[in-house]
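Example (one chain per record):
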Amino acid sequence: MNIKERLHRILATIPEGVKLVAVSKFHPAEAIEEAYNAGQRIFGESRPQEMAAKAKVLPKDIEWVMIGHLQTNKVKMVAPFVSLVASVDSDRLIDEIEKQAAKNERTIDILLEVHIADEETKSGWSLSELEEYLNTGALERMEHIRVRGVMTIATNTDDEVVIRRDFKHIQTIFEELKPRFGEAFDTLSIGMSDDYPIALEYGSTMVRIGTAIFGHRIYN
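Predicted structure:
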């Protein structure tokens, strides 16, 4: 089965209104082009250098989503073109995105990454840290950032009970934060290749799927 066939098989399982981020990290531009020619327009990358290199050679109407941890000193590499930074996990990163967005005379959409998994290695705000930051009012003063929603990665486990617990938790957080940000706050990004059908049950509006579309990574 080729990329086009795998992509269409995934799309057939996703309800209307749910966005598919095709996670293209570690795959060559040719693979992205094949998915693009099959109709896909949103692609997720985790390394700024890789994203910037691909953006130079691929169609300009691609929406690039930064899904990996983004270091503050690398924001300037993606600020001119990135569609969404889906992994915003600190006030320092927010400040730098605001700074670089202003330099590029853009408004950059972001998702707040919340850590709810059982693994310490996962990145993201703890709920208490996020609430403390939001209560400072700093985010409301940002003129070049638009907060679109929240993102998390569920615990890496085969235990469906744990996965459902994680997704229910982030769904509750999403609903609680909605009134603070208004209509633009419309994105709950949960679900990857192995668990996205469960994520859809908990209101996911954006799934991030790589292996099920592109196969295993080509390079590191």
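Caption: The chain has one domain: 3-214.
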